[in-house]
């Protein structure tokens, strides 16, 4: 796992040390942390979601107990009924030190509440400017999706390849897609089409990386039967993103992109 900033996040009244992961659509905590801090009342509120299948980047399944709906505090706001998955403890001690993952389901909800109350000035709030840079940047991406950049900045995203892609029921699959090479190396926001995908497949707005006109789009099948995506099926569109504002004294540093030598697995975790 790459190094991610971490911070204590209050979930259900308990401070949970969390990795801030803007690539995750869900928030999680480990079973051992849950057992130590949330029992016995947490066990009664633990709900099952057997339709959801989690897989790691190496293709192995991630077992989990279920999920909780907790009040989560972030940037001075309290978001009610946020879903937090309780996952089995993995080998190693990394997640023993940082047992939680703060995902975009909480961050985007935080943005919606802050923007609804303060508008674009939310980035001037002390509670936001003092937050970790990764949280501020995630809020900026949420804002970028709302302000709607010029139409000319959009580019279509279509399923890549000559063969159909099969998305098994109850899984998330990374589908290779194509778009214009002009987005390569830029901060890029993917947004799904309004009409939806075949068979009830779901895709969500996500920050993606375009490499030589190729991009990986997370597609979720919440049903119980397999659904097929055919080549050149329109998934959505991409647009460039930009920093809206930065805390005083903070400057943006261009990152260095490393190209993997091995292909990305088709099915990955929602983390």
Strand count, sense and barrel status of the largest sheet are: 6 strands, mixed, barrel
Major beta sheet, strand line-up: 1-2-6-3-5-4
What count of helical segments does DSSP give? 6
Provide the CATH architecture of the largest domain.
Beta Barrel
Distance between the termini: 10 Å
- Rg is 19 Å
The CATH topology assignment of the largest domain is Cathepsin D, subunit A, domain 1
Strand tally: 14
Structural class: alpha+beta
Percent of residues in helical segments?
10-25%
- Which ranges are low-confidence, i.e. pLDDT below 50, for 5 or more consecutive residues? 250-264
CATH superfamily of the largest domain: Acid Proteases
Shape: globular
Mean pLDDT across all residues, rounded? 79
Encode the helix/strand succession as letters. EEEHHEEHEHHHEEEEEEEE
Please indicate the count of domains: 2
CATH class of the largest domain: Mainly Beta
Fraction in beta strands: 25-35%
């Amino acid at each position: 796992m790459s190094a991610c900033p971490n911070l204590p996040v209050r979930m259900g009244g308990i401070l949970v040390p969390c990795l801030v992961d803007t690539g995750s659509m869900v928030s999680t905590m480990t079973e051992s942390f849950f057992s130590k801090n949330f029992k016995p009342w947490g066990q009664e509120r633990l709900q099952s979601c057997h339709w959801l299948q989690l897989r790691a980047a190496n293709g192995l399944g991630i077992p989990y107990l279920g999920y909780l709906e907790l009040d989560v505090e972030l940037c001075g706001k309290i978001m009610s009924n946020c879903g937090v998955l309780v996952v089995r403890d993995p080998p190693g001690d990394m997640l023993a030190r940082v047992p939680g993952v703060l995902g975009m389901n909480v961050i985007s909800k935080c943005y919606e509440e802050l923007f609804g109350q303060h508008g674009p000035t939310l980035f001037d709030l002390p509670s936001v400017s003092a937050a970790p840079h990764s949280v501020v940047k995630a809020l900026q991406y949420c804002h970028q999706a709302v302000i709607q950049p010029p139409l000319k900045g959009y580019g279509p995203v279509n399923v890549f390849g000559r063969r159909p892609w099969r998305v098994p029921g109850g899984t998330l699959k990374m589908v290779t897609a194509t778009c214009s090479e002009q987005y390569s190396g830029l901060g890029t926001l993917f947004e799904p089409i309004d009409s939806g995908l075949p068979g009830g497949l779901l895709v969500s707005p996500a920050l993606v990386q375009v490499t030589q006109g190729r991009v990986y789009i997370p597609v979720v099948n919440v049903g119980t039967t397999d659904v097929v995506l055919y080549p050149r099926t329109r998934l959505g569109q991409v647009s460039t993103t930009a920093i809206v504002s930065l805390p005083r004294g903070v400057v943006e540093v261009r990152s260095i992109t490393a190209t993997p030598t091995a292909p990305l697995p088709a099915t990955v975790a929602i983390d």
